[in-house]
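Sanity check

After download, print the first record. It should look like this:
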Amino acid sequence: MKKIFLLFAIFTLAISCNKDEEEEPLSPAEQALADDAEIVEYMKTHKIVFLDGVWQNNIDWKVEEILEDDPEGTESLFDIMGANVIENVKNGINYKMYYHFVEQGGSSDFVEETDEFHADYTVSYLSGSILETTGSKLDATKFTYDTESLYKGWQLILEILHTGTLPNATPPSLPDTYRSIVEKPGRAIILIPSGLAIGDAGDVTQTSRMPLHFDMVIYNKTTVETVEE
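Expected structure tokens:
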């Protein structure tokens, strides 16, 4: 079973090798505060735009910067998700991640440890640079929940995001198919501080100290029975 986010190490290495000088890293506590300030500013200056009939990786929205000519009162990410905070204390440091359920999953199930599940996602830095995006075929998006391969930020969101069902359909037929699904997939936007993402592995590269933005869809959970020895 492949592990999620395996390619991130490659991205991190490629980018970090292009830097002649590295800034002196902040302490973990200082980095947590800096990440939170950056995420809050990002939420205040960006908005959700829904894409009518356009689907990529089962996602029909994107996040864009709020422009000067946008209508007055345009709803920002901060308006939508600024109060949706998950706090996680690790080594005495309080980390904050933010979430918005574009659509809560239609089932009553959560993905739990050892479960297999499908996930479509796009992950980027807050600058907009995309690190990775999954394909839309089911065999390319199947993962196993385990604490070694999932970012802590994903583990925390999976505790509250219901899963759902998605048939083996790809665009352009997907929108029509999706509307007929009773137990729709769980769909969310999450903003994760580096301490609950790449930086959780203990790296001190510049890229590992950057918060991440995920657009994600969770569906087709399968419970795997564990055998006690």
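If your output differs, re-run the checksum step. Summary of this record's structure: Helices lie at 8-17, 28-44, 77-81, 152-158, 174-179.
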